[in-house]
Amino acid sequence: MIRHCSIIDRYAFDKVYMCEVPNLNEAFPPCNMRNDCMTQQSTGEPSLWNRLLGPRDCILLEHVCGPGKARKLKALLRAGPRPLLHFPPKETVAAIVTCGGLCPGLNSVIHYVTETLLQNYGARRVIGIKGGFGGFYDADLEPLELTMDAVNGLQNQGGTLLGSSRGGFDLDKILLFLQKHEVTHLYVIGGDGTHRGADKIAHACLERKLNIAVAGIPKTIDNDVDLLDRSFGFTTSVEAAQNAIKVAVTEATCNLPNGIGIVKLMGRSSGFIAAYATMASGEVDLCLVPEAPIVLEGDKGCLPHLERVVADKGYAVVVVAEGAGEELLGASAETDASGNKKLPKIGEFMQAKIEEYFAKQGKQCSPKYIDPSYMVRSVPANASDQILCMQLAQNAVHAAMAGYTSFTVGMVNNKVVLIPISLITATSPRKLDPYGRTWERIISITLQPNTVPFRPVKGAAPREPEH
Amino acid sequence: MIRHCSIIDRYAFDKVYMCEVPNLNEAFPPCNMRNDCMTQQSTGEPSLWNRLLGPRDCILLEHVCGPGKARKLKALLRAGPRPLLHFPPKETVAAIVTCGGLCPGLNSVIHYVTETLLQNYGARRVIGIKGGFGGFYDADLEPLELTMDAVNGLQNQGGTLLGSSRGGFDLDKILLFLQKHEVTHLYVIGGDGTHRGADKIAHACLERKLNIAVAGIPKTIDNDVDLLDRSFGFTTSVEAAQNAIKVAVTEATCNLPNGIGIVKLMGRSSGFIAAYATMASGEVDLCLVPEAPIVLEGDKGCLPHLERVVADKGYAVVVVAEGAGEELLGASAETDASGNKKLPKIGEFMQAKIEEYFAKQGKQCSPKYIDPSYMVRSVPANASDQILCMQLAQNAVHAAMAGYTSFTVGMVNNKVVLIPISLITATSPRKLDPYGRTWERIISITLQPNTVPFRPVKGAAPREPEH
Amino acid sequence: MIRHCSIIDRYAFDKVYMCEVPNLNEAFPPCNMRNDCMTQQSTGEPSLWNRLLGPRDCILLEHVCGPGKARKLKALLRAGPRPLLHFPPKETVAAIVTCGGLCPGLNSVIHYVTETLLQNYGARRVIGIKGGFGGFYDADLEPLELTMDAVNGLQNQGGTLLGSSRGGFDLDKILLFLQKHEVTHLYVIGGDGTHRGADKIAHACLERKLNIAVAGIPKTIDNDVDLLDRSFGFTTSVEAAQNAIKVAVTEATCNLPNGIGIVKLMGRSSGFIAAYATMASGEVDLCLVPEAPIVLEGDKGCLPHLERVVADKGYAVVVVAEGAGEELLGASAETDASGNKKLPKIGEFMQAKIEEYFAKQGKQCSPKYIDPSYMVRSVPANASDQILCMQLAQNAVHAAMAGYTSFTVGMVNNKVVLIPISLITATSPRKLDPYGRTWERIISITLQPNTVPFRPVKGAAPREPEH
Amino acid sequence: MIRHCSIIDRYAFDKVYMCEVPNLNEAFPPCNMRNDCMTQQSTGEPSLWNRLLGPRDCILLEHVCGPGKARKLKALLRAGPRPLLHFPPKETVAAIVTCGGLCPGLNSVIHYVTETLLQNYGARRVIGIKGGFGGFYDADLEPLELTMDAVNGLQNQGGTLLGSSRGGFDLDKILLFLQKHEVTHLYVIGGDGTHRGADKIAHACLERKLNIAVAGIPKTIDNDVDLLDRSFGFTTSVEAAQNAIKVAVTEATCNLPNGIGIVKLMGRSSGFIAAYATMASGEVDLCLVPEAPIVLEGDKGCLPHLERVVADKGYAVVVVAEGAGEELLGASAETDASGNKKLPKIGEFMQAKIEEYFAKQGKQCSPKYIDPSYMVRSVPANASDQILCMQLAQNAVHAAMAGYTSFTVGMVNNKVVLIPISLITATSPRKLDPYGRTWERIISITLQPNTVPFRPVKGAAPREPEH
């Protein structure tokens, strides 16, 4: 009865289409030095990297196959050290900038980009730009010299050594800085908008004949950049959210009768943190995300669901993403200083609705509301994210040294790849697939009513990051 | 200059070969009930799973492609809920057993296997076998009734509710128990040896016409089961090891002059924990694993390397896997009560050698030795492992309900798959590829001399879990 | 030059006045069994306690002396095992009740009261009353049987096994319960109001000739019960607050320019948590408490102070007690369901004022506001509090077994004492002495302007808990 | 029945004897500047300390009273700011040195000594001596300039910025350094031996007419300095030990049958850490300390006790202080490089004995041994210890500014006092009182046989730190 393999010939593929990444070799003569410059401090002898990759090494974006799957295969360029360098290390000057909100792992990326450049490639200099793009030209924000001493141990600290600040993007002034300091590599750590800025810089460099590689490293605590298995900092934030959920469980079980704990988590447009925190905890009874409508009462209502849970267990725990419930509360027209629209106060709203609903049933209930806010994003990266940051940072440097530009690095199907920035900004922010496994798991764990409209499974569903 | 795709036609594939998983439908008539029994406590209405999988849904094992890659593709069966059940839920009785040493996440797997069976499928009963295989017949080890109440919150505790104990495997008595209690599902959580036992039970059931699905869930804190991206508990142990490394850094920096901190970590035959802990820390200067020979002195010597590091930074930190250095110290013929061979005391050995070497150079040095031992394995699973345990547990239940047997579940290329047990036991324990990216990264971070013999890159290298 | 002692004869004291604690021996005949009943499970042989205390063993409340100190000395009765028992252990039935909000250590007190009674004294039974005083008669709240198994490991969990709930106190129904279940000891864990209730029960028992000892164990996370060195749970909450302060430091340093982090901590009428958290952190630049008025602008203004700090360091961190600023915002007439008056939103107020003030100076500033709320009180007790809870619980039992009633236990000058409840409720809630060492230390660390009006040192200052 | 006070006139005291602390005013003319120099950065206006203390402000060492207590009272000088300064701040140069093993809080003491001197008193300079006393003259150990920037945030890091190293004490060279750098204050942080060294320096300064104040701050993780309520770092180490004990509980409960977990903790000659960790955990069944003999078998044997516990609960947890069992294993004549005698390996010995004993009874048992070693001492100070360090550091500075010398600071009866060094070195190391409350509590919690010989309670028992 046991066979090891059966041939599934109808899944044969005709062609693989690889998303190409621009390379400066096409516009500027490369130095073509051999990539053996990993000078080992210990022995002084040069040491080759284990495996050097070519321009056609790729990984399949879609490795799931089965009846009815398309035959056309997309692939992404593998990241890793290349045999020939575009830039001579001794002339390599890098600038690093972090933009937008804090995210666990920022310092780790800064540490490893610097370490790989200085220690492994022997680059000339690494400059840390303070306070986002504005730091290129804001007189109050003096750039930092990033040396090995300056980044020693940095990876284990929360926040970012470089700070971040609101908005600002003056292309000409940025290019002026790059030219003035003879920058050859620009590493930009940030989200969607930041990547669009990085792409503009990359194109402007090409147009103005500046031999500068621009590399992106996607930073989004919400895990909402498309294609990626996970963005750095995400697992740390899910871990950090557990503290709040544990407290919610304690409060709910101890506040008699009918104790309910509510935890608000980050997630403006996608509920990944809320959903993953729910799965990681296993003690949540209701998880509200932007991707599934909130229904308060009736058959699919979350309030009767909570009432049933409380009647059964004596208490209940709710996790709500900050962006959930817009369909209920209405989107605000206001925006904050960074241009993000102000979110309705869904946490407090739910707290009031629950109290009101229980009162209507003649039952006491004083829900406890917990908003861990910055306590989820300002912690140091956990071990998994440290490793991810290291992988991304090393590979960004490998790629830039080889002349790639206008790319971002990411983990896709468990391998680090180079992705053209234009590809990744086209489809972000990614949302939780309401017909995918993750949402299904939330329902199966919480048993909450599924408010996503029934839809027969057909056609290609959105790509889920991991399942 | 920017193009999105280029056709790489020489990577076209002819055929996909899928490793088949035995199914009880071939030997016993299935009940063929529709898998819509996820009775929602809240509403009472049945709810279909989002996506039901067929017998040919698979994922490619090797999704890396490029010049010179083989055209023959191996694939693994995707895990997930199936449209038809083999077992009627009301007649489903499951037994769960955990074998071998502790590993973070054991209680989480127990929690989610039980929850999925009772809460999502409405199974009749779940029995927890205490103390490993012996618990099936040892009169002192009364089985536990696993109810929803019994497993509530269990997932957040270290250890295993079921305990584990040394050896023991009496096939006949195990089958007797299964028959006596009308068990239809057996979930076996353990390592290599345990999986071989599970496979024997599965085959014996088929031979004796017992309609029982046997599912394995691979448990190895060392991450040394082949094919898998990572085994549950591994990232938690890497995280837990950080505490010891941090302390080693503090001791090393504070014990003047020439402070050195040494941390011993788990890893009998493979150095994954040591290597990943080194990458996650970023503060380690020497990482010793079983896969790379230890050279004490000379050009490639680790002692002169430490001397250089100490001269440069003032201190150094060493991580050593318990199984490293066998080529130096010799393998012991002795074994412990579980049949594992006794390991030479590499940690104490290195401590003595370092002290001796520095003394020979006329330098003071009193290395501080830290053995966190069980503090790495007895902690609760972190958030990432919680989610992994949930994914594995749910999918083991889905597969068993559909009649699959003699399989194990694992995360491969970021998707959960079903793997025939025989396939996974054939190639384990997996070792760190000394010519792979992970080892390369250790060298690039620590700058320690690479003692792995130079080998030109050719042929297929061993599969690395993640990079 | 070195002398060891000098006689300070003018400090000689005439008399010591000890605050007496009522004892049931005066109203009911004691059993007078010898207190040797600590049956050691191991050996079966009775074992005397190390030191048995008499009715005149006391500690001085004021052990500070010097010129001008009063000669009349107050003393408190020492807690500890006594030679003779009032209650025969076999007839001892205890009830435990926890009231009011959560506080770290509640479960620890429950654990140790139960353990001391059952394991050390061999008491007949311990009953856990659920949900506060209401649990004595609320049909929905079934009492728990507290056995050794039930409390095993309980001490390491946050919250309270018994739950708590709002208000309710029906003296007659409580006495009815006590009589019906033949309760001889009542342990009441709670704050001021709860202690007043306990005192009423104690007096009613005496009046109605019920031979029942009523013991209080003061619970106040705010550390605002007078006389005590510290109340249990307080150091844990100060510790827990550090997480929020660390995050505030990270946010402040990383949000350029002029980053400011604000942390709101508990403390309705006294600022002990805020003050101690400030001292424990050493990274706070402004600490606002109810005991010192908030001045916004001008010479003593906290806003110009923050501006100076930010100009100097680049960032600032603010800690504010929830009850601070009433003089600024006005007290609300509203109360919540527990009868506590609603506090003005001082945290959000300060956030707005800071933003406004910086804007007025033409400076950017977006203060980050963190309210860890329940994350400070729902955590398990730390080691220090565990030991304190054990000391209080054991001594409450020792005293009740010896017949003392209407008392509470507390740590005073580093020794556990018995205090008549009436004495402790008379002077609570205690406030931070604005002319004491603690507030002086806040000023010396933060360098914030001292808004407390200047007052020449004279007369007896309020008693500070610790310095 | 309720009375508040009764006069206990037979406790009246005749005299108070205060242990005097040497003051440099007697040998050198003081500057007698008013202590109003706390220049508030914010406002520039001088601000008096809240309460200035005189030379006769003291606290009673023994505040316990009762029948038969001695009438002669010892007192200690209170610590705090004094009205007049001995040293002009602008001429104050301080040196700080840390000696001996690491202890949580060292960096906190360094931070607060520096901050109080520079920020509150406006001292000229603070010099950090590296590597213990040897750092005064070892050419390899360059002193650190301690500025406010250098110590910012330092308090939250484990270890010591200054490092420590083995032995070395050259009085003449130390004095040479002090003179050369015009040092006026020397702060010495260390244990017994270090304090004896500090005392020698203080006396030599007086003899050689050097106007230098020498202040000790007692550092002993073992809490074995006499008189003190607790030494800094002690509660942190007890807290840190909980991680190891938790793991031991998990291992013991999960390793069937007869699981036993053993944790070795620090404590060469006194068992305070082991005893307090046992009390803080509440899950320990056997606690072995140097102060109570280890009896293996028989009526008082710990092995039969463990057998009974395991038979009852299924598992057992053992905590053993590293210095326990010398009477069993014999003291070693060997010493390590620091001159400490080598301890017998009591942990491994107990592990072997337990296994052997169970085997003799025909029972399986594989005890798990955990030695957290440096993981208990290299962690950052917890909140309680942070505050203690701040109190000690500030008061050491206050006292030195007022001219006191040859003293140490400590918390006694919950107040900080100044103690002549000679007094504290005379009676240390302190041991756990085997007839005191702490040991009694260990017995009452673990129910282990009390191996301390019975002794009727009489006479004055040794002073316990806290109960």
UniProtKB/TrEMBL annotation, chains A, B, C, D:
Record's keyword terms, sorted: ATP-binding, Glycolysis, Kinase, Magnesium, Metal-binding, Nucleotide-binding, Transferase
Entry cofactors: Mg(2+)
An example Gene Ontology molecular-function term: 6-phosphofructokinase activity
Statement: the UniProt record of this protein carries the keyword ATP-binding: yes
Catalytic activity as recorded in UniProt: beta-D-fructose 6-phosphate + ATP = beta-D-fructose 1,6-bisphosphate + ADP + H(+)
GO CC aspect terms: cytoplasm
An example Gene Ontology biological process: fructose 6-phosphate metabolic process
Keyword Oxidoreductase belongs to the record: no
Superkingdom of the organism of origin: Eukaryota
Record domain Rhodanese: where: 117-145
Function: Catalyzes the phosphorylation of D-fructose 6-phosphate to fructose 1,6-bisphosphate by ATP, the first committing step of glycolysis.
Stated name of the protein: Pyrophosphate-dependent phosphofructokinase
Gene source species: Tribonema minus
